[in-house]
Structure formats: structure tokens, C-alpha cells
Amino acid sequence: MELNIRQNLLKNWPQLWIILEKYFSDIEILNVSNCRMNFDKNPSIIYNNIKQTVLIDTDNDCYLFENIFKYYPNLINIHLGLNQLSFISEIFVDQIQNFTNLSLSDNPTLKQWDPFINRLGKLKYLQELIINNYGIDRIKLPNQDESNELFPSLKHLYMSDTKISSFDLINKLSRLSSLISLSILRNPIYLTNQIENETAKRMIIARLPNLTHLNRV
Hints:
- This protein is of the alpha/beta class.
- The protein has a single domain, classed as Ribonuclease Inhibitor (Leucine-rich repeat, LRR (right-handed beta-alpha superhelix)).
- 24% of the residues lie in helices and 12% in strands.
């Protein structure tokens, strides 16, 4: 059910396609993290069974992921940490419409909430979004109503080690109707003094009354 070939020396994706087509056509989880592979040939089949891919530290950007994910139409969970993401394209979002879990941590070159994170808000099944260690310093949500609500199913948002410094930005998260869990550790909104940190925690909770967990507590 799971093929983990991380940290190997495969040089291109066609080598992997051959392996999958011949021996592992029914796997559901594919992990090729820490591999450096070129994409220079399309597979001959669509991998309908793969539900989760782990592509951590593959040194790729959104263009390559666009090419890969169109052959995995039933993905619901991906991990793309430690890559070279500097943008999130509309094509990428169109290819992951069934996603419930998305981890994009440790891509500090991605610095804009709008439009890039907001594009992910169109994923109507997305329940968990992990964007720790990003270059983001502000949260910007467009005006919306019930017909175009962003992040309608998002319950868990992890954005520790970013650059959020204002409680006014936390106010914007109150518009995420399903949000119950937020992690925002090691942001400038917290100071070094323990009493001030406790005050910051209370200020966040006051702004997000639907929270059941803050910083995993």
C-alpha cells in the first residue's frame, strides 16, 4: 500500500513511472522525499489509487508539481515542505480539488498571503493547512459572502515561525467559519516576557471564539 523510496538516486520521473507501472500500480502512498528528479516524460497511465504523496526537499517549484499531480487525480494529502515554492498557481489548485490535508512548511520564499494562500481557500474539502516557516507577514482575505466563502472546511491552521506581528491580522482569521485549531508559535506577536505571552494568548482566544486548540494545547 505504501512505497517509500526517499533519499535515493533516481534521476528522473520516467524511471519512477516504470517502477510504479510494473510493480506498484495499486499503491496509495508514495514517498520520494530528498530525491532530485527531472520531469522530462509523461507516464503512460493515470494513478487513480494514489491518495497521498510526500515530496519533501525535492528542490522543485510549483511548475513541476503541476505536471505531476495531474496524473494523481484522487490525491487528498500531500507534503511539499522544504522546496522552492515562491507562488501557488491556479492550475495547481485546480488539480488538487479533493484535498483534505496540505503541508507546505519550510518554503520561506512564499511570502504573499494574497493571492497565493487565498487560492488554496477555493479547496472546499481542505481541513488542514500547514504553512509553518513562511515569509508571510500579513493575512489578507477578500470580501466574501456565502457564495464565495474561502476555506469553508478548514479546521486546522498551522502557521508558526512566520512574521505575524499584529492582532488586527488575527481578527481576519475570525472569518474562517470552521477554524477550531490554530498554531502560531514563534511569531512576533509573542514577546520574550512570559506575562506578555500569556496576554497575547488571551488576545488571540478573544478574537477567535470558536477555537478549541491554540498552539496544540
